[in-house]
Specification:
Distance between the termini: 64 Å
Low-confidence stretches: 173-182, 212-223
Number of helices: 14
Structural class: mainly alpha
Order of helices and strands: HHHHHHHHHHHHHH
Strand content: under 5%
Shape: elongated
């Protein structure tokens, strides 16, 4: 974002929120402009201006946008395909329908954030064997809660200035942060490990013919 675009941004905000700069001295206005430029230095200026206008167009409270609010709008513009929790569960539900025989294939089709919540193809197989009532109540509720948290983390990370993201990636700072125990995630992991153990035992018993035996195409041809 260029200095000229920062001045445009501030002019837009001042036009719609005239009281915003009323009590600011020229020195304070310069400090504000410098901070806006630093925090959006590596962002596309036109997109930042579009994000500010999108905020203003939907604002019902009458307060000017903060940097964080503009960043959030900017992330929405740059990540329009980010699913909400209901949409994410709908994608998983479709994957589960084919999860008994095509878990790996369906897992690969899921967006990365959804994959992280599901965990592995084995979990799709486990859910495919779960009764419908439990699947659409308990499993769905747990998934959507976990996904909501993951999606929020992903959006917040995208909103960070580019230099901060690079610093986190370089030092892997997030890996060193302690995580709060998640009982539901522990349950999902336990189910995943159980499913993987059962699959490994089945493969051991059936040997190399496992995939052929469980290929639904072969079953259909046999019928």
């Amino acid at each position: 974002m260029t200095g000229k675009q920062v001045l445009q941004l501030m002019a837009i905000i001042r036009e719609f929120y005239p009281a915003y700069y009323r009590d600011k001295s020229p020195e304070e206005a310069q400090i504000s402009a410098r901070l806006w430029k630093e925090l959006f230095a590596e962002d596309d200026g036109d997109q930042v201006l579009a994000a500010v206008k999108a905020f203003i167009a939907t604002d019902t409270k009458g307060f000017p946008p903060s940097v964080g609010q503009v960043k959030a709008r900017l992330v929405q513009l740059n990540a329009p395909d980010m699913l909400d929790e209901a949409q994410a569960w709908a994608r998983v539900s479709r994957a589960i329908q084919r999860g008994s025989y095509h878990a790996a294939e369906e897992f690969e089709k899921l967006p990365p954030v959804v994959q992280k919540v599901v965990g592995s193809p084995s979990m799709l197989r486990t859910w495919a064997a779960t009764d419908a009532d439990t699947l659409q109540t308990v499993v769905a509720s747990n998934f959507m809660r976990a996904y909501r948290s993951r999606a929020q983390d992903a959006m917040e990370r995208l909103a960070l200035p580019a230099d901060v993201r690079r610093l986190l990636e370089r030092h892997d700072c997030t890996a060193a942060l302690p995580e709060r125990p998640d009982s539901e995630e522990q349950k999902r992991n336990a189910l995943r490990l159980l499913a993987e153990s059962r699959e490994a035992e089945t493969r051991r018993i059936l040997g190399e013919g496992y995939d052929e035996v469980y290929d639904p195409g072969n079953v259909a041809r046999a019928e």
